[in-house]
Amino acid sequence: MKAFYQDFKLGIVGGGQLGRMLIQSCVNFDVFTSVLDPSPIAPCRELASHFEQGSLTDYDTVYRFGKSVDLVTIEIENINVQALYQLEREGVPVFPQPRVIEIIQDKRKQKQFYREHGIPTADFILVEGRADIVANAAFLPAFNKLGTGGYDGGGVQRLNSSADIDKAFDKPGLLEQYIDFDREISVIAARNANGEIAVFPPVECVFDPRYNLVDYLLSPSSAAPAVLQRAEAIARQVVESFGIIGLLAVEMFVTKSGEVLVNEVAPRPHNSGHQTISANHVSQYEQHLRAILNLPLGHTALKSPSAMVNLLGEDGHSGPVRYEGLDEVLQINGVNVVLYGKKETRSHRKMGHVTILDDNVQRLLEKVELVKQTLKAVT
């Protein structure tokens, strides 16, 4: 492979906000970036060295794009993995590897992978449709998850009893045991081709119950030290089991008895790692770049406790975006605002995020509420 700083082209499949923030790290390493995305106004368009509009699920489009670059990476899993396999066979490095992406694309394969590799996860039953759920009604309460197609909180339905089965998906998926958990945490880990692994400190995720999306997170998590150590060990186990080259976000449940269970993983930069841009010695984006280029991995320790607030489009607003309250938020000590370059907003669309740094956890929480109440993505 060419030296990354000499006539080297990195291909990024997907041009959303994750790709945009990855490009910002690429600039620091003088890496030429070529981006493929279906939207003519994708967030990456104005930052990429080269931008190509095209379908991420079309074999020929993804294959041709991959042949034009020296290494392919992704910022979204919903892509044509067969094209990535062919690129890999023809000698184009693809990181994360197609076999990893293919498993993670399907929640059914994901859960089976955990079971086969002794990775702790909630019990589950594979189902082909609603009839299988009826036959397994004794397993309820449980979450019915689509095997493929769910994204950003979609494709998941809670079924409390047989009375809820009419809400179930009549497609291949799974029933996952309902866990009465204490908290949700996320650990982001990276692995390079040399086998070096680095793990970021676990963060605690607080979800918006309306959208099933992260409302805000706290870094580090306030869970007991033994729980955090267990979570980091599990993240390492998952990374090693996949043998991934790149970044892996491992979302976990912590039960009320202190057990740590893997929920889902994402083979790319993740919403639960945005705060690393400001709060850690290396960001998740630079770490992903280091991993896929087989460079030494960066130091993941915190520089400061932090919180990250997702900036979502306001209910009832759809159209050209306007940011209300930006001046007021920027006056708050420790606030760092990142806008994603999306020209139009809509209800609960991710438009940006705000990282807040403060050594005092109570002040962090107060600032979180102030930011949530003040900064709005409206039309």
Question: Per the principal axes of the C-alpha atoms, what is the gross shape?
Answer: globular
Largest sheet: 9 strands, antiparallel
Total domains, how many? 3
For this structure, what is the CATH class of the largest domain?
Alpha Beta
- Could you give me the name of the CATH homologous superfamily of the largest domain? ATP-grasp fold, B domain
pLDDT < 50 stretches: none
Structural class: alpha+beta
Rg (CA only): 20 Å
Mean pLDDT: 95
Beta percentage is 25-35%
The CATH architecture designation of the largest domain is: 2-Layer Sandwich
Q: CATH fold name of the largest domain, please?
A: D-amino Acid Aminotransferase, Chain A, domain 1
For the secondary structure, the number of strands is: 21
The rounded distance between the terminal residues' Cα atoms is: 47 Å
Helix content: 25-40%
Number of discrete helical segments = 11
